[in-house]
What we know:
Blueprint: H1 2-22, E1 44-47, H2 68-79, E2 85-91, E3 96-102, E4 109-118, E5 124-132, H3 141-152
Antiparallel strand pairs: 1-5, 2-3, 3-4, 4-5
Amino acid sequence: MRHQRRTTHLLSALSMLALLAACSPGQPSFVELATLERSPTPNDYLVCPQSLTTAQVDRDPPISSLEVAALERHWLTALESEPRTRRLASEADAQRHLFLQRTRVLRFPDLIQIDFVALPDGGSTLCLYSRSRYGHSDLGQNRRRIEDWLNRIGVPSPPAG
């Protein structure tokens, strides 16, 4: 009987978590990376040139010789086919986009902001900020997502010509 009660409580707690994850994450919005104050909890991951933010970055982004618009098109096309991912907002003038991707099992919503940055030499780079909407720790999910995207999508070379 005692074991059955614990199991019932555990199932109730998991059901509540799943319900919370399935609910709309509210009104997510862009963050200003230049003045970003990162969460004190281990549930976000930031890839950005340190010169563009006051926050501590987790790693530097790749640099592309492509113009910023071409890098943006490349990434947006690739992200259209990402599972459990949808674009929530775009600011075309600022060349930044906000995506929501739900985790595979419990469907927790994570927000991913991508800012595309033109470089003085005509090349480009990007800033990626992935953060969990709920919970204290993401168990490394945001880092794994961004590293996976960087490895798979990357920054292509310009066409020869």
